[in-house]
Amino acid sequence: MKNQKMLILSLLALIAIITLMGCASMDKAIAENPSSPAMQGKMLLEQRCTVCHSLDRVNAMNTDQAGWDKIIDRMIQKGAKLNAEERQKVIDYRISME
């Protein structure tokens, strides 16, 4: 039983490390090309979405394309300042981070 718990904890730690490495790689790739749509989406998210809530809240949300479409549209209805092109860049960025 003790060995089984250690194995599970080890696997969870490994999954967490791999996930963090993947996110760091994605962030590095985005940062290396500041004019990329992904970097533009990240900057828009940081500038426009944090007016009302933290990046942690946004980043904690895991959903698919349809889910992000609904979330962003709801935020625009509540006053988020995103035009159609900016909206899509934010959605594309978030989908790329999933």
Protein described:
The structure is a single chain. This protein has helices at residues 2-32, 37-48, 55-60, 65-77, 84-97. It is an all-alpha fold and 98 residues long. It folds into 2 domains: 1-32; 33-98, Cytochrome Bc1 Complex, Chain D, domain 2 (Orthogonal Bundle), CATH 1.10.760. Helix 2 packs across helix 5 (84-97). The radius of gyration is 17 Å and the shape is elongated.
Summary, kept brief:
The protein is built from five helices and no strands. The protein has 98 residues and is mainly α.
| The level-1 CATH class of the largest domain | Mainly Alpha
The tally of strands reads 0
What is the CA-CA span between the terminal residues?
34 Å
Oligomerization status of the protein chains:
single chain
CATH topology of the largest domain: Cytochrome Bc1 Complex, Chain D, domain 2
Count of distinct structural domains? 2
* Radius of gyration based on Cα positions: 17 Å
Uncertain stretches of 5 or more adjacent residues: none
What does the largest sheet look like? none
What is the beta-strand fraction?
Answer: under 5%
Q: What is the count of DSSP helices, taking H or I runs of 4+ residues?
A: 5
Overall pLDDT level: 79
Order of helices and strands: HHHHH
